[in-house]
Amino acid sequence: MNVPKTSFVASGSIPEISKDWHTLNVEESLAILTSDFNQGLTAKQIEQRKQAFGTNELKESGGRSALVILWEQFTNIMLVMLIAVAIVSAVLDFRQGTFPKDAVAIFAIVIVNGILGYLQESRAEKALAALKRLSAPQVRVIRQGKTTEIPAKDLVPGDIMLLEAGVQIAADGRLLEAQNLQVRESTLTGEAEAVLKQADVILPHDSSLGDRINLVFQGTEVVLGRAKVIVTKTGMDTEIGHIAAMIQSVETEPTPLQQRMTQLGNVLVSSSLGLVAIVVIGGVLRTGWQFFEQLLEVSLSMAVAVVPEGLPAVVTVTLAIGTQKMVRRHALIRKLPAVETLGSVTTICSDKTGTLTQNKMVVQKVETGSYHFNVTGEGYNPVGEFLSKQHQQLQTEPEVQQLMLACVACNDALLQQKKTPKQTEWHILGDPTEGALLALAGKAGIFKENLDSKMPRMGEFPFSSERKRMSVIVDNGDGTSSYSMFTKGSPELILECCDRILLKDQLVPITAEQRQHILTENDGMASNGLRVLGFAYKPLSSVPDAEDQENTERELVWLGLIGMLDAPRPEVKEAVKRCRSAGIRPVMITGDHQLTAMAIASELGIASPYEQVLTGQRLQAMSDLELEEAVDQVSVYARVSPEHKLRIVKALQKRGKFVAMTGDGVNDAPALKQADIGIAMGITGTDVSKEASDMILLDDNFATIVAATEEGRVVYDNIRRFIKYILGSNIGEVLTIAAAPLIGLGGVPLSPLQILWMNLVTDGLPALALAVEPAEPNVMKRPPYSPRESIFARGLGLYMVRIGIIFAILAIALMVWAYNHAQADGNPERWKTMVFTTLCLAQMGHALAIRSDTQLTIQINPFSNPYVLGAVTLTTILQLLLIYVEPLRNFFNTHWLSPTELGICVGFSLLMFVWIEFEKIVLRLLKKRG
Ligand code: ATP
């Protein structure tokens, strides 16, 4: 198309955006929006438009409103049951003519609990919203004549936006130019097929949304190609804004554990109702109606005791803390279930480039038809030398010049300099591989800014991981309507497309020996861990059509090989070791050459140098069954395409593995979705891959995956720890209450109010503290647990029952003693307070002892989790206040205890602590014996 060279006068007025943009041509659109094709908007215009149009954000209709969150607190089945208990208890009190204290207190607790739950949940929602902002996409734009990246929310109408494959479009816009741009618009139109877009068409007024091929829309995804777009509408003015759909969300779906907790809640509530029915009906059948009210009292207490009221809140808080800890370690959780299941990962499939390596490329070796030379220099600084024994002035050789031209012309990155007072720093915008090529060409004096104006780009066949190459067609700029196509990509593939080679300034047919020599050189560079690209070109007399790719990328002229160093990340070697000791297998899946892959994999300890590498080509020929057999042995996959990744994940899953898989490209999305934990790259990843992922690596680093896995294990361990803690106590309470009438003691030892106090305060506070327990020393030294295991697996269910029984035995023993003692003492009600106090204090010992499954409490630093110490102290003080402060005593129906009585309670409670420590010692001995 014709690029408009004229620049429209940038006026300060605010443009009219409610136009039918598809009916306008490029020039009209630019004029209305007073923007410039090459320069974009001015700083003043940007400021004015920000004021006029606001930020480019969708008002979130997806989040739950405050009212809904509050309402949900009170419709929780456990709270509904408590309200029912309060009502029954009030009726009983009214009949007896007493003030319904229990009912009032239960209502108060229900309300406080509801408000606390509300505060916690809205905090969790806010935290998720903050996480969402962290993953907010960046957009490449031209502003004030410069190409930069800005946060998508800062876009304004008139901005010139650059699109490429993998981008999720951040605003509505009119195409200014497009190269084979294909956009998936299913979010908007429901149409799964990608639409081919065109800039140079004008459409009738009544074209439907799906037919407006000269426009792009916010929230849709670029599948292929590139384009330059002028932003027409932002924020709520966009098409997606009109239907107020939520995109780019951090999802808040409940985790499997939360779902199981809800189920458990339902089971406990229905079983407690069953219990009430059995006690009341059984009692009435046995003793008639005369003890009905007492029976009802007992059964209400039991019903309250069974239900772990504090548990759901603790689970929610633990998961929220988990996501925050992970973000501190640079792993952003997008889907909450991942927090809990990360610890179960058995296999981590990782890309090489950028995840295992630093993605800071520096060209080291170049091989053209006649020359072989080393390149010096550091980073992206375009200063360095070409060192060769054969030749002193390589930079000016036509062969080398043409290769450097290819490096710059066939390149989408930008090399930019940032001047600081001390020095000039060079950095790149775009793909580091391409950045390294720009730096290399700079060393030969060729820069993109100069070349683009002399040899403008006329067309391209874009890069994709499947094709492993890209081509760009440029005008030769000599006024003769002649063109050149420059191609770069995987050397083997490029070489196959060549039939000639450039030697000095001659194009000669390429011989079999020359081919062999090039392949040997390629292998030599790759086995030293270099990333190698092949280059070729082709003179053309016309610009080919976008569909003519196959035919055009043939009969090329070979230009040379370029080998660049991409050093492994220093921290990855250690992370790989940690993976292995944690029973997790690291696997490398790369698009790069097998020898490069193997060199890096063996340096990092992912594979031994003699292990076999499975290439995409061989994988392609394998049946699913053969692949399933292979995946257990193979640790390095090379030259694979995204579709192979999907097959590898499926094969690993068939072998029972729980797979985490990284991906960055647009076509990686299916593999990321299929993986148990799909991981996208925060820095280099496309928006599409991020959208499909469960977790985003903010630093693209493999070591971060391992760190997140460790956090996942800690979260799961802690959840299990407080479930053990809370449910053990509930079982103890129920058994104690049931035992009282059975062994012939008059009355219920614990009132519903006291039970609620225990479940919410004396169990709740230490449980919250246990949720932040740091990692146990062996957390990454044991194999992963199956994600499908029941929460009660590995002895947890048994532990709860056992501890519940021990709890009850202690409480019942004390109860019998205290009952007799109190009767003799003339204060028949005091035994109840002793039981209440013992149960509470025993839980304190339990909290201290349960911090570790393996270490004795004296071996753990008490201050490694000061919260437990704090919660235990605070709760003990509160419990004492309940006994010794009169208004509280009256309210909670407790009785003053003498120091001896209190001492006896403490003594019994300590037995609980001693028992758990004793269990640990026995367990250790049993383990030692084998
Ligand atoms: P990984 O899969 O580990 O991230 P990768 O970058 O090599 O590694 P792809 O991006 O799929 O994987 O690239 C596959 C191959 O395509 C590369 O090994 C290289 O040969 C070639 N290639 C990569 N980037 C470009 C590019 N910008 N232009 C042309 N060819 C490229």
UniProtKB/TrEMBL annotation:
Catalytic class of the enzyme: hydrolase
An example molecular function term from Gene Ontology annotations: P-type calcium transporter activity
Cellular component per GO, a single term: plasma membrane
Coiled coil: none
Signal peptide: none
Record field: transmembrane: 68-91, 103-119, 267-286, 298-321, 722-743, 755-775, 796-819, 831-850, 862-884, 896-918
Gene3D superfamilies noted in UniProt: Calcium-transporting ATPase, cytoplasmic domain N (3.40.1110.10), Calcium-transporting ATPase, cytoplasmic transduction domain A (2.70.150.10), Calcium-transporting ATPase, transmembrane domain (1.20.1110.10), HAD superfamily/HAD-like (3.40.50.1000)
EC number from the UniProt entry: 3.6.3.8
UniProt keyword Ribosomal protein present: no
PROSITE patterns documented for this protein: ATPASE_E1_E2
Keyword ATP-binding applies: yes
Membrane topology: Multi-pass membrane protein
Subcellular location: Membrane
Domain Cation-transporting P-type ATPase N-terminal span(s) in chain numbering: 20-94
Keywords noted in UniProt: ATP-binding, Hydrolase, Magnesium, Membrane, Metal-binding, Nucleotide-binding, Translocase, Transmembrane, Transmembrane helix
InterPro entries in UniProt: ATPase_P-typ_cation-transptr_C, ATPase_P-typ_cation-transptr_N, ATPase_P-typ_cyto_dom_N, ATPase_P-typ_P_site, ATPase_P-typ_TM_dom_sf, ATPase_P-typ_transduc_dom_A_sf, ATPase_P-type_domA, HAD-like_sf
Family: Belongs to the cation transport ATPase (P-type) (TC 3.A.3) family. Type IIA subfamily.
Name under which the protein is recorded: ATPase, P-type (Transporting), HAD superfamily, subfamily IC
Annotated organism of origin: Stanieria cyanosphaera (strain ATCC 29371 / PCC 7437)
